[in-house]
Structure formats: C-alpha cells, structure tokens
C-alpha cells in the first residue's frame, strides 16, 4: 500500500461525516418566508404620528376653519340698513321749503328737520317734471366727527343745480303746531288755510319714504310712490365728503 492510499484511508472518514452532517443539518435550520398578519409595534413615533386618522386632523382643523370664517365675515362690508319713515315737505307759498322726517306721524320730535333755501314755488316747478334729486353735501372739516344727521349746515343741489344751503333746525312751537295739524294725514298733499299754525297758507306733501343708511357718511330718503302719484320720483341724499 502506498503512502497516498494510506492517507486517503485515514483522512477521508474525517471529512465526509462532517460534510454529511452539515448537509443534513442545513435543511433543519432553513426557514420559510411567510406574510405576517400581526400588528407591528416597532414603528418609530414619527411613523405612528404620520398615520393618524384623517378625521382627527379634520377635528383639529375645525377651530381654525371656524376662526377664519369668523374673520372673513367680520371683514365683509356691512349691508345698508333700511327703515320706513314719514316725510313731509311743507312751506308758505311765498316762503322757503321745510323738510321733515319722522318715525311716527304722531311723534313731536322729528328724526330730521331741515330748512331749505329753495323757494316753495321753485321746488313745485321742479316736481312737475316728475324727477327731483335733492343732494345735501357737507364739505366742512369741523363737522367730520359728528353724527351725519347732526351736521348743522349743508350745501344744497337740486337736480344738478346749486340752490344755496340747507340748515338743520330744532323744532319750534310753530313747527310743532304745523306737524300737529297734519297728524291725521298719512299720505297726501294739500293746502292748510292761513291762521292754522301759520299766518299764511301752507302747502304740504306727505308720503312714506325708505330711509337707507349706507355708512357713517351717507344716508338717503326715497319716496315710496302712492297710487295717485305714479311716476313721481323724489330722493334726498345726505353726503359727507370732507
């Protein structure tokens, strides 16, 4: 027997069992890959927070959205307020026109009482055309902060023509007697004989007006036409431009 055969005889048994044992043991340690259906709890906190329910986000965003809605509502321009008032135009035939607005025809204190510099006969002439626009404008800076209806003096324009001034007046005893004489009249026009609250005949026209408050610097009164005055348009505008 040669030395090589002897080595093969003694060394091969040493290597073969280990190889077989490792080959036999290999299948025992081999694991199959399976899909896990259990919930994992090893996610990092950031990942968990990023997978929150969208409904929670909606709930958290609701206060902000409501706040933004409230802010947008507060920034929206206010709408003009509208009320119904009674307006009376009266004056002596050879005198000047008075303009009175009341919340109630029985009230002794009017909402606004103005004496216009336009003569009565001239205003009657303007009204024959069916359209009258009386614009009273305040341009004096010293009256910028007072309430609009408390402005004492106005520049007057009638149908685009400058016709002097208008002055705010307190109710005198003569005015009060005149308004008391017309308390029974809701809507209408006519002549009050001399001696009834005035030494001369007084022409008057009373109707309902729509009072519109646009802002602190603009108000207007618009005649609501009764059936017998169809086609008559009359508006009084208070404007502060200073």
How does this model look, in words?
With 242 residues, the protein is α+β, with helices and mostly antiparallel strands. Helices cover 30% and strands 34% of the residues. A nine-stranded mixed beta barrel has the order 1-2-3-6-5-4-10-9-8. It is elongated.
Keywords for this structure?
alpha+beta; 34% strand; 30% helix; nine-stranded mixed beta barrel; 242 residues; MIZ1-like_pln; elongated; 10 strands; Protein MIZU-KUSSEI 1-like
Give me the number of helical elements: 5
The description of the largest β-sheet is: 9 strands, mixed, barrel
* Euclidean distance between termini CA atoms: 133 Å
Low-confidence stretches: 17-44, 46-61, 72-76
For the residues shown, what is the average pLDDT? 76
H/E topology pattern: HHHEEEHEEEHEEEE
Protein name: Protein MIZU-KUSSEI 1-like
Biased composition (Low complexity): 63-72
Pfam families: DUF617
Region (Disordered): 20-80
Task: Give me the secondary-structure topology.
Elements: H1 3-29, H2 45-50, H3 54-75, E1 81-92, E2 96-102, E3 112-119, H4 120-127, E4 131-138, E5 153-158, E6 161-168, H5 173-181, E7 188-192, E8 202-215, E9 218-223, E10 233-240
Parallel strand pairs: 4-10
Antiparallel strand pairs: 1-2, 1-8, 2-3, 3-6, 4-5, 5-6, 7-8, 8-9, 9-10
State the gist of this model.
With 242 residues, the protein is α+β, with helices and mostly antiparallel strands.
């Amino acid at each position: 027997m040669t030395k090589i055969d002897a080595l093969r005889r003694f060394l091969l048994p040493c290597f073969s069992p280990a190889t077989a044992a490792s080959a036999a043991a290999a299948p025992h340690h081999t694991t199959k890959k399976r899909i896990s259906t259990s919930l994992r709890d090893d996610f990092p906190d950031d990942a968990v927070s990023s997978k929150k329910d969208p409904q929670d986000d909606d709930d958290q965003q609701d206060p902000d959205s409501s706040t933004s809605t409230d802010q947008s509502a507060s920034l929206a321009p206010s709408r003009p307020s509208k009320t119904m008032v009674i307006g009376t135009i009266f004056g002596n035939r050879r005198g000047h026109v008075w303009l009175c607005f009341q919340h109630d025809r029985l009230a002794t204190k009017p909402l606004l009482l103005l004496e216009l510099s336009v003569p009565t006969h001239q205003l009657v002439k303007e009204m024959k055309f069916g359209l009258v626009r009386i614009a009273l404008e305040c341009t004096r800076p010293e009256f910028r902060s007072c309430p609009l209806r408390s402005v004492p003096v106005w520049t007057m324009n009638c149908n685009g023509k400058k016709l002097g001034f208008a002055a705010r007046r307190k109710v005198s005893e003569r005015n009060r007697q005149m308004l008391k004489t017309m308390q029974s009249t809701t809507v209408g026009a006519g002549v009050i004989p001399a001696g009834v609250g005035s030494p001369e005949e007084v022409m008057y026209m009373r109707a309902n007006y729509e009072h519109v408050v646009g802002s602190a610097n603009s108000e207007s009164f618009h005649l609501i036409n009764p059936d017998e005055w169809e086609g008559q348009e009359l508006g009084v505008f208070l404007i502060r431009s200073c």
